[in-house]
C-alpha cells in the first residue's frame, strides 16, 4: 500500500501579508473551505493507503495537529524538523521510517500547499506512477503546461516507459520567456511539480550512492528522536549536521531510474498572488474578490479584504490584500518582489513578518487589540476543555475580564470560577493558570501592564502541550 508523505514546511513569503512565518500559506484556506493542507489530505481519502506521515517545522506542530484532527484523521504521524534542510533529507526521514515497517513501501510525496482541481485525474496519474514505482523507478509527476511559464522548473521527457510514462531526459531550471515558449511548442516538456512516487528502498539506495552523509545524518536524527504527545521530535544536533539539498539535485538529476508521468489535473503551487488570481473565480471584468469589496471601473484585480471594506476606483492589474495590521498594494506582474518586503520586515525585526495580530496557540487564539509603551490589550479565546500553562511573569501584571463563557482561574493556591462580566487581577510574579471548563469557547479581555510585555516573559511550570 501507498504511504502518503506530506511536506508541510515552508514560509510562503510571496503571499505576504496573508501568509506569515507562524501561519504560512499551507495552513490558510486560499482555494477552498479548508486550508491547503486540509485540501491535500482530502484528495488522499479515496486512495487506499497507509497512515499519512507529515513533516513540518517545530513551530507549526500544533497547527498541523489541529488541522489533521479537524479532518477526522486519528492515525497520522507527525515528524518535527528542528530546522529546514530542504526536501531530500525530509523525504529520507520518511523513507527510513516507512522502511522500518516495509522496505518496499511506496511513498507518495506531496507538498501541503498545492492546488489540484481534477482529483480524479490526479488519482489516475498516481495509478500509472505506481506501476512504474513497483518496477523500481523513481517517478515524478510532470504537469502538462498550459502556457509559457517562467516561474517553474521543467522536465524534458525521453523515451516512452509503460503505458503513459517516460524516462526523464533532463531537468531544466526556470527558463526565460522565449525559452519557455519553445518548451511549450515542442510538447516534450512538463512543469516540475515537486511530487513523487517511489519505493523507500530505491530512494534510500540512490541517496546512499550520491549523498551518503545525508543518509547517515538522517539515521542518527531518527535514532535519537523522542516522542512528544502526537509528535516525533528529531535529534536536533544530528539533523543539523545533515547536508541541505533538494531531492532534484540530490537524486533525481543523477539517478538512472528517473521517470516522469504526465499530470493534467489543474495543478498550481499557488506560489504568488498572480498565481492565486489565475485559479480564482473572476467576474466579467476579470476581478477576483474575497471579503467586503466594492469596485468601480476596475479590471483584472485580486482584492482580498479580511476585516474591513476595500474599495477601488479606476485601476487595473493590481493585487490589494488587507489584513488587521497590514495592507499590500502591488502590480500583478511584480508580485514576486513581495518577498523583498518580507526580507526588509525581517531585517528590521518587525512583527508583521512573523505573525498576524491573531496568533494561534494549541489552546485557542489571541488577538492583540492595542498596545503602548507600558500596556497591551488582547482578546483571548480558549477552546472548551483547554488550559493554558501554569506560569508566571517577571515584568507584567494582568487583568482579565470575562466576556463570554466561564474561566477557571488559579492564582497561587487559590482556584475560583470567573463568569461573564466578572474580572480578576494577577499581580507581577504570581504563579497562575487559566482553563476553560465549559462546553463553549471562553472569551476574555486581557490587559497587561508593566515594564516589559514580550511573549518571552513567561516562566512555565506545567504545560499539557509540552512547552515547558
From TrEMBL:
<dbReference type="InterPro" id="IPR051161">
    <property type="entry name" value="Mannose-6P_isomerase_type2"/>
</dbReference>
<protein>
    <recommendedName>
        <fullName>mannose-1-phosphate guanylyltransferase</fullName>
        <ecNumber>2.7.7.13</ecNumber>
    </recommendedName>
</protein>
<comment type="similarity">
    <text>Belongs to the mannose-6-phosphate isomerase type 2 family.</text>
</comment>
<keyword id="KW-0175">Coiled coil</keyword>
<dbReference type="GO" id="GO:0004475">
    <property type="term" value="F:mannose-1-phosphate guanylyltransferase (GTP) activity"/>
</dbReference>
<dbReference type="InterPro" id="IPR029044">
    <property type="entry name" value="Nucleotide-diphossugar_trans"/>
</dbReference>
<dbReference type="Pfam" id="PF22640">
    <property type="entry name" value="ManC_GMP_beta-helix"/>
</dbReference>
<dbReference type="InterPro" id="IPR011051">
    <property type="entry name" value="RmlC_Cupin_sf"/>
</dbReference>
<dbReference type="GO" id="GO:0000271">
    <property type="term" value="P:polysaccharide biosynthetic process"/>
</dbReference>
<feature type="domain" description="Mannose-6-phosphate isomerase type II C-terminal">
    <location>
        <begin position="349"/>
        <end position="463"/>
    </location>
</feature>
<feature type="coiled-coil region">
    <location>
        <begin position="328"/>
        <end position="355"/>
    </location>
</feature>
<keyword id="KW-0808">Transferase</keyword>
<keyword id="KW-0342">GTP-binding</keyword>
<dbReference type="InterPro" id="IPR054566">
    <property type="entry name" value="ManC/GMP-like_b-helix"/>
</dbReference>
<dbReference type="GO" id="GO:0005525">
    <property type="term" value="F:GTP binding"/>
</dbReference>
<dbReference type="Pfam" id="PF00483">
    <property type="entry name" value="NTP_transferase"/>
</dbReference>
<comment type="pathway">
    <text>Nucleotide-sugar biosynthesis; GDP-alpha-D-mannose biosynthesis; GDP-alpha-D-mannose from alpha-D-mannose 1-phosphate (GTP route): step 1/1.</text>
</comment>
<dbReference type="GO" id="GO:0009298">
    <property type="term" value="P:GDP-mannose biosynthetic process"/>
</dbReference>
<keyword id="KW-0547">Nucleotide-binding</keyword>
<dbReference type="InterPro" id="IPR005835">
    <property type="entry name" value="NTP_transferase_dom"/>
</dbReference>
<keyword id="KW-0548">Nucleotidyltransferase</keyword>
<feature type="domain" description="Nucleotidyl transferase">
    <location>
        <begin position="4"/>
        <end position="283"/>
    </location>
</feature>
<dbReference type="InterPro" id="IPR014710">
    <property type="entry name" value="RmlC-like_jellyroll"/>
</dbReference>
<dbReference type="InterPro" id="IPR001538">
    <property type="entry name" value="Man6P_isomerase-2_C"/>
</dbReference>
<dbReference type="Pfam" id="PF01050">
    <property type="entry name" value="MannoseP_isomer"/>
</dbReference>
<dbReference type="InterPro" id="IPR049577">
    <property type="entry name" value="GMPP_N"/>
</dbReference>
<feature type="domain" description="MannoseP isomerase/GMP-like beta-helix">
    <location>
        <begin position="294"/>
        <end position="345"/>
    </location>
</feature>
<dbReference type="InterPro" id="IPR006375">
    <property type="entry name" value="Man1P_GuaTrfase/Man6P_Isoase"/>
</dbReference>
Amino acid at each position: 500500500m501507498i504511504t502518503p508523505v506530506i511536506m508541510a514546511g515552508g514560509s510562503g513569503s510571496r503571499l505576504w501579508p496573508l501568509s506569515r512565518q507562524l501561519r504560512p500559506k499551507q495552513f490558510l484556506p486560499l482555494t477552498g473551505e479548508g486550508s491547503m493542507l486540509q485540501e491535500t489530505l482530502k484528495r488522499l481519502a479515496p486512495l487506499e493507503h497507509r497512515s499519512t506521515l507529515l513533516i513540518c517545522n517545530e513551530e507549526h506542530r500544533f497547527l498541523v495537529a489541529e488541522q489533521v484532527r479537524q479532518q477526522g484523521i486519528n492515525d497520522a504521524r507527525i515528524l518535527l524538523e528542528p530546522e529546514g534542510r530542504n526536501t531530500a533529507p525530509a523525504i529520507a526521514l520518511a523513507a527510513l521510517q516507512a522502511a522500518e515497517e516495509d522496505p518496499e513501501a511506496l511513498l507518495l510525496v506531496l507538498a501541503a500547499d498545492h492546488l489540484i482541481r481534477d482529483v480524479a485525474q490526479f488519482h489516475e496519474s498516481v495509478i500509472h506512477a505506481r506501476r512504474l514505482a513497483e518496477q523500481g523507478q523513481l517517478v515524478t509527476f510532470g504537469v502538462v503546461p498550459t502556457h509559457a511559464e517562467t516561474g517553474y522548473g521543467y522536465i524534458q521527457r525521453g523515451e516512452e516507459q509503460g503505458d503513459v510514462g517516460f524516462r526523464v531526459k533532463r531537468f531544466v531550471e526556470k527558463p526565460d520567456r522565449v525559452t519557455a515558449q519553445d518548451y511549450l511548442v515542442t510538447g516534450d516538456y512538463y512543469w516540475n511539480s515537486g511530487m513523487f512516487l517511489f519505493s523507500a528502498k530505491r530512494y534510500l539506495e540512490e541517496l546512499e550512492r550520491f549523498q551518503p552523509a545525508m543518509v547517515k545524518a538522517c539515521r542518527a536524527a531518527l535514532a535519537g528522536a523522542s516522542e512528544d504527545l502526537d509528535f516525533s521530535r528529531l535529534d536536533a544536533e544530528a539533523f543539523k549536521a545533515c547536508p541541505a539539498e533538494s531531492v532534484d539535485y540530490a537524486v533525481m538529476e543523477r539517478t538512472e531510474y528517473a521517470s516522469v508521468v504526465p499530470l493534467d489535473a489543474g495543478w498550481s503551487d499557488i506560489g504568488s498572488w498572480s498565481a492565486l488570481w489565475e485559479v480564482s473565480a473572476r467576474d466579467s471584468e476579470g476581478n477576483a474578490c474575497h471579503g467586503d469589496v466594492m469596485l468601480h471601473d476596475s479590471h483584472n484585480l485580486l482584492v482580498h479584504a479580511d476585516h474591513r471594506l476595500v474599495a477601488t476606483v479606476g485601476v487595473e492589474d493590481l493585487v490589494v490584500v488587507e489584513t488587521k495590521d497590514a495592507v499590500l498594494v502591488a502590480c500583478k506582474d511584480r508580485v514576486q518582489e513581495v518577498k523583498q518586503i518580507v526580507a526588509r520586515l525581517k531585517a528590521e525585526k518587525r512583527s508583521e513578518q512573523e505573525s498576524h495580530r491573531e496568533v494561534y496557540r494549541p489552546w485557542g487564539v489571541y488577538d492583540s487589540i492595542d498596545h503602548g509603551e507600558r500596556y497591551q490589550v488582547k482578546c483571548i479565546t480558549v477552546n472548551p476543555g483547554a488550559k493554558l500553562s501554569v506560569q508566571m511573569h517577571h515584568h507584567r501584571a494582568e487583568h482579565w475580564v470575562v466576556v463570554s463563557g466561564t474561566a477557571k482561574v488559579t492564582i497561587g493556591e487559590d482556584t475560583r470560577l470567573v463568569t461573564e462580566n466578572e474580572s480578576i487581577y494577577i499581580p507581577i510574579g504570581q504563579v497562575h493558570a487559566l482553563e476553560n471548563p465549559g462546553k463553549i469557547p471562553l472569551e476574555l479581555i486581557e490587559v497587561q501592564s508593566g515594564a516589559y510585555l514580550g511573549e518571552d516573559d513567561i516562566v512555565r511550570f506545567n504545560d499539557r502541550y509540552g512547552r515547558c
